[in-house]
Amino acid sequence: MRRPGFLRRPAPWLLVMGLAALLVGAGSGWGETLTVSQPNQSLYPAPDFASAPIAPVPVGSQVSVVSQSGDWYQVDFQGQQGWLHRQAFPQAKGPKFNLPGMLFGAPVKETKSDEVALAGKGFTPEVEASYRQSHPEMKFAEVDRVEAFQVNHAKLQSFIKEGGLNP
Asked: Which domain holds residue 107?
């Protein structure tokens, strides 16, 4: 009895099946649910802090991860899809498998406008606690007041446009 053609040379089929299993396993991290643990988070239409926020995402909200691009997660939140930065859930570890990184090496790190925007977001709770301890003269109530300040997004976009700024 003759074997079917694909069984005569099993090595290529094993390789194809192995790659398929690897790729399916790589995507299994998506669809996970993450909980937002940082205040003042917004859902964005694109992975960019300069885009107009779609909706606020309060602390304690659960989002379903659809995909990831760098430090941004595309999520589903209350029926809306958008992007949240990883700062919203510092407990997230990121993708477990990075095929492009494995094949071509890690990208060169450089400062992006996203990171500059994050620098203005404030201390982490750990850094703030340490700073508070070493600087008792600091007026943290005023820092909290500044952090609570909200800017109207329409006015901000108008300011950017009128000033000819390119974020």
From this structure: 5-121
